[in-house]
Amino acid sequence: MKKGKKAVSLLSGGIDSAVASAIAKKAGYLIYGLSFDYGQTHRFELSSAKKLAKHLGFANHIIFPLPLKQFGASALLGKGRIPKGRSKDEMQSGIPNSYVPARNLVFLAIGSAYAESIAADAVVIGAHTLDYSGYPDCRPEFMDAFQKAVNLGTKAGVEKRLIKIWAPLINMSKVEIIKTGLELGLDFSLTLSCYDPDEKGRACGECDSCVIRKKAFQDIGKRDPGIYR
Amino acid sequence: MKKGKKAVSLLSGGIDSAVASAIAKKAGYLIYGLSFDYGQTHRFELSSAKKLAKHLGFANHIIFPLPLKQFGASALLGKGRIPKGRSKDEMQSGIPNSYVPARNLVFLAIGSAYAESIAADAVVIGAHTLDYSGYPDCRPEFMDAFQKAVNLGTKAGVEKRLIKIWAPLINMSKVEIIKTGLELGLDFSLTLSCYDPDEKGRACGECDSCVIRKKAFQDIGKRDPGIYR
Description:
Chain A is an alpha/beta fold.
């Protein structure tokens, strides 16, 4: 069954998971994409994920339904208003309101189930913490703890076939992430970073995610090919 | 919002998760049941889970769809034939073929997301290892590793509101589990343990799970109220 290295890549449609996937591809992995339909406030994220999976030549791409909405209002992305025009200091104060309960724990667990099912060697996630550090489930110490849980809680782990939990961006800044993506030929026009796109899928340019993206492209001195309203 | 202690209980329809739920109820928790529709080879498991949730007076009971089938044949329960009439020694050799890739990792992760969404104090799981030890994701060391991942990867953990991963049966034998359930007034006629029930939901009496159950009731000297064909 096994031919070459395989990796499951958690693909959101944003910049980070696209660059993480491009890094895994460059490293020689055959990529099996996994995106979650978990009640995001907009559907454009999944549409970007589909375009990216094609662009990056994934071996497969699964959109996995995950009805977290059933758990109540606090399980939802987009609780309350999306803050606009915040400074970096404001972004860095506390856990962002875009935090979704145990999201990466759930995504990585299902990614590990997929990886074990297809005898893949890694689960790739675009998590990083440098630009703003509010998400507990993007920290290296969480990744390490999750790796131990996978090693102990799967047949693969018991049989010493490591499923590596790989967060290749974990110590990169947004500038480094975008530079890496450009070097790898990633088409950033396919990515969508905005928390609040309009009905045509155009980014707002003012939410935390848009502000960080725009600033990073400015710092590099490259045009951001993202579509803004 | 918070009134008294809440626990999310992972409920399969079998004996173990029913007794674990009864223990949590006795300990004063309000129980929020969570069952997974993950492509079990039979539907009677979920029907038993529904009856048990009612019998045990759960505050809520969610059946969560989890299409693991998409990950390929090896993600499915019931790969190959279900072994019948095996001895205890045979059952204890290696990881059983009823192992589902990363199942408890996924179940506990989604349970933790539910727990965090409703500000619950615990996630209860009926895992235990004494009777047969083949499942890696039932071991205490896995539970400990998963607890650390939850503590590090959730807002609740960062804010020191512990979501306890609680496996109250972890060191119990099947005899002790059934005795405990009987003491707590659990109606075992509602549980279904069989891996291979017939079209009317009657147990086979010969698969590993039936053999272990029947032997435990015999050892206690009580009639097994389960329905066999």
